[in-house]
Amino acid sequence: MRYALRRRMWSAALIVAFFLGWEVLCLALGVSDLVVPRPSQVMSTLIARFPVLWPHILQTLWTTMIGFGLGVIVGVVIGALIGTSRVAYDTAYPLLIGFSSIPKVAVVPIFVLWFGAGPVPAVLTALAMCFFPIVVNIATGLATTEPEMEDVLKSLGASKMDLLLNVGLPRTMPFFFASLKIAATYAFVGTVLAETVASNKGIGNVMMSASSNFDVPLVFAGLFILAFLGVALYVLFSLIEGRVVGWANRRTDLSPS
């Protein structure tokens, strides 16, 4: 327990030291805020303009969450199919790899052409960005199921669906939560990417407008907001993971409490 507390204190101290070093370095070198603003300038901008930024934060957050939720559903379904069927693996996996290799900035104009400017292209871009890591991890988790266990359960009368629901999917939970942490950050990237191209609302649109007006502190304020939202989701999924699959996490507190 003391080791875990000491580790968290060291992590917090290093984060604070990073921002202090950033502040001091900008002051010492006389860096203009048009190049890299100081953290204090970014925070003052964020506080002063927070009432204006709040609707854009909500827009980006709910758009990302919808795209992320749809990406989780699509990723789990496709991952389960690929992980349980060799035919589906041979058919779908090359297509998925090809799709994931396409820069999503090239896909956004297609979404705009189909659905017009607004939140729909952002939702679809977030989905397109985040579902592939979930597919890969679910398929990998299912592939780790021992054939011997499957043979024993089949001899006891278990169907393929029983194996999937009672053995396969529970064993994929560590892989699933690992993919959620990655997919959540990808979803934010997809949303902001679409907002810079095809939206008049959201943090991506704010950052694009601020950069065109050379308001660099506001651009960095948007980056800070996105970083905070990403970290918050990461922490949330880590807490849920600890409750659901704590048995699979490697013990790090080796010192006696």
Automatic annotation (TrEMBL):
Transmembrane segments in this chain: where? 61-83, 95-116, 122-144, 175-198, 218-240
Q: Subcellular localization, per the record? A: Cell membrane
Supply the Pfam families for this chain: BPD_transp_1 (PF00528)
Question: What keywords appear on the UniProt entry?
Answer: Cell membrane, Membrane, Transmembrane, Transmembrane helix, Transport
Asked if the Swiss-Prot or TrEMBL record annotates the protein with the keyword Nucleotide-binding, the reply is no
Locate the ABC transmembrane type-1 domain: which residues? 57-237
Primary subcellular site in the record, as a coarse category:
membrane
Provide the topology term for how it sits in the membrane: Multi-pass membrane protein
Q: Note the InterPro entries from the entry.
A: MetI-like, MetI-like_sf
What does the similarity note say? Belongs to the binding-protein-dependent transport system permease family.
PANTHER family given for it?
Answer: ABC TRANSPORTER PERMEASE PROTEIN HI_0355-RELATED, ALKANE SULFONATE ABC TRANSPORTER-RELATED, MEMBRANE SUBUNIT
Q: What is this protein called?
A: ABC transporter permease
Q: Which organism is it from?
A: Paracoccus nototheniae
